[in-house]
Amino acid sequence: MSDDNDVLIVGGGPAGLAAAESAAKQGVRALVLERHNEIGYPIHTSGGSWISDMQALGIPQHLYHPISKVVFVSPRREVPLYYNPAVACVVDIRGLYQHLAGRAVAAGAQLRVRHTVEQVQVEQGRVVGVTVKDHTSERHNLRAPVTIDASGISRHIGVRAEMGKAFRRYGYGAEYDMYAPNYPQDELYLIMGSAFAPRGYAWVFPRGNGRVRLGVGVIHPDCDDDARTYLDRIIYDLPN
Q1: Fold of 7-43+95-161
Q2: What is the pTM of this model?
Q3: Cα 195 from chain centroid (whole Å)
Q4: CA–CA separation, 84 vs 209, rounded Å?
């Protein structure tokens, strides 16, 4: 693997891929390091977003599904909000991430999957590179003038370089991607209440073609329960 890089980007999510594309367009030699087997999987978000953001980023319309009705549900009340034209959307996460990866590579960036950062190289208080393990368990020492930590909640660079602590409070969720042909494909539900998601919320996000994402998220460590328990309760207790 070449060590001739101007920027190392740890994390192949939307932030890392956007940084890689932007850098490469300026003639900067950018290398993205992603620890998973592929870009866009596993999925860590349900994909709720705004159409204006998708348009500003130049995302093709087939990668997001418009929502014209958002319903907030509490134990005692249900509040629908209508939008015409639609302003919210549900994103095809895997498709979006791979689209961004394609744009970054087309701009000239390099991308490596199954490359896990094990150590951060620090000299005189500056991060000057990383040590990564590739898919064959071979280790590589990579150096660059700039290293970008785009690893999300894990903060691979920041924590290892002692530039900050790991997040102690974070959202933890579980989700089913279901086929629900009778569900209105323009309606999104956000459900609050301890019966469904203590210290969190549940959601129903349609994503087109009869597909629906049904999920539950809780805040750790405020709630130590497994979100999957509440998700299964919704599946079995509220079939309608």
Answers
A1: FAD/NAD(P)-binding domain (3.50.50)
A2: 0.90
A3: 27
A4: 21
| Overall fold of domain 48-91+168-237 | D-Amino Acid Oxidase; Chain A, domain 2 (3.30.9)
CA 136 centroid distance within chain: 26
Residues in a beta bridge with 73? 78, 191
Distance, in Å, from the CA atom of 226 to the CA atom of 210, rounded to the nearest integer, reads: 28
CB 196 within 8 A of CB 234: yes
Q: Which amino acid, one-letter code, is at 147?
A: T
Judge whether residue 26 has pLDDT over 90.
yes
Cβ atoms within 10 A of the Cβ of 21, count? 21
91 burial type by CB count under 10 A (0-12 exposed, 13-18 middle, 19+ buried): buried
Residues for the chain: how many in total? 240
| CA separation for the pair 90, 156 (Å, rounded) | 28
User: Residue type at 69?
Assistant: K
CA distance 18 to 69: 30
β-bridge partners, 126: 123
Q: Is the pLDDT of residue 2 over 70?
A: no
